[in-house]
TrEMBL record:
The protein, known as: Tripartite tricarboxylate transporter substrate binding protein
Superkingdom: Bacteria
The keyword Signal is assigned to this record: yes
Homology family: Belongs to the UPF0065 (bug) family.
Taxonomic classification: Bacteria, Pseudomonadati, Pseudomonadota, Alphaproteobacteria, Hyphomicrobiales
Length: 329
């Protein structure tokens, strides 16, 4: 290096140091303003149930407001997921989403549509809830058992309407998985989220839906709905008398609706570490624990490393299910 190059490098060094110090300070000072937690569904569903108490707990821990933004649209949560994927990786836009996160890009490819986002754009932060899905029908429906439902569906192919949170969302995939195994055809009626689908079930617009225990328990307790089967491998404490699909002979029908917090994969490591620490505290909050347990969905926390492995395994199983289901409406 000649004298001119040496002087030039020396002159640039303070600027580089200043830039590095500024970036480090910006990360260390996080958060310095409001944080947005995108929920890609309307209020009333599993993701919303997970987001609101966690957001309140994070506010207390981080000292800044955490604002829940219900950004529905696109079917199954794709609009909100894509918005979070495109956000600046600075820790100020988080995503509380469901297991459909990995399914939706595959559905886009299945239909030769532009892919709204890729799962690789996200980094898992923490799993919050993980429940088996339940099959619910109105209390006024004629079906008292799953066999009653299947028998009727076989007599009237394509005539029993069921609601979902959108094409290839969690509730859609669960129902189509069951329908394929039972050899029945149902009428899919997509909504913008589980909340509107639940309202439609209560109002009689649809006659069945798959949903998480936390969004169904109060309605079942109030005598407004009946549950016929559980997509989990085992019975659950909040519905101890409800048989699983496996128990009823559907060995390949298993589905879980989990909710977890994600951020952009390019998020700086110091912010990710702080966020993980805050989430570990948040899920231990008495208010969070009480809210989830009252809803029949106890905390199912996983930290980032374990959650990343869980997401990879669950996504592979769901993607295989989507490919098996194929193009359905």
């Amino acid at each position: 290096m000649n004298r001119r190059e040496l002087l030039k490098a020396a002159a640039a060094l303070p600027l580089a140091q200043a830039a590095f110090s500024h970036a480090a300070f910006a990360q260390a000072a996080w958060p310095s303003r409001n944080i947005t937690m995108i929920v890609p569904f309307p209020a009333g569903g599993q993701a919303d149930l997970a987001a609101r108490p966690v957001a309140l707990a994070l506010e207390k821990i981080l000292g800044k407001p955490v604002i829940v933004d219900n950004r529905a649209g696109g079917g199954g949560g794709s609009v909100g997921n894509a918005a979070a994927a495109r956000a600046e990786p600075d820790g100020y836009t988080l995503l509380m989403t469901l297991s459909s996160l990995a399914v939706l890009p595959e559905a886009d490819r299945l239909f030769d549509r532009p892919v709204a986002y890729e799962v690789s754009q996200f980094a898992p932060v923490a799993r919050v809830l993980a429940d088996p899905t339940l099959l619910a029908v109105p209390a006024s429906a004629p079906w008292k058992t799953l066999q009653d439902f299947v028998d009727d569906a076989r007599k009237r192919p394509g005539q029993i309407p069921y609601g979902s949170s959108g094409p290839y969302g969690t509730l859609h995939v669960a129902m189509e998985m069951f329908a394929a195994s039972a050899g029945i055809k149902l009428l899919h009626v997509p909504f913008r989220g589980a909340g509107p689908a639940l309202t439609a079930l209560l109002g009689g617009t649809v006659q069945a839906m798959a949903s998480a225990p936390g969004t169904l328990k109060q309605q079942v307790d109030d005598g407004k709905m009946r549950v016929l089967a559980n997509w989990g491998a085992e019975r659950i404490p909040s519905f101890p008398n409800l048989p699983t699909f496996r128990e009823l002979g559907y060995k390949d029908v298993e589905f879980y609706i989990w909710a977890g917090l994600f951020t952009q994969s390019a998020l700086p490591a110091p912010i990710m570490t702080r966020l993980r620490e805050a989430m570990a505290q948040a899920v231990k909050s008495p208010e969070v624990i009480k809210t989830f347990e009252t809803a029949g969905s106890p905390v199912a926390y996983m930290d980032a490393p374990e959650f990343a492995k869980f997401v990879a395994a669950d996504s592979a199983r769901l993607i295989a299910a989507v490919k098996k289901i194929g193009k359905v409406g």
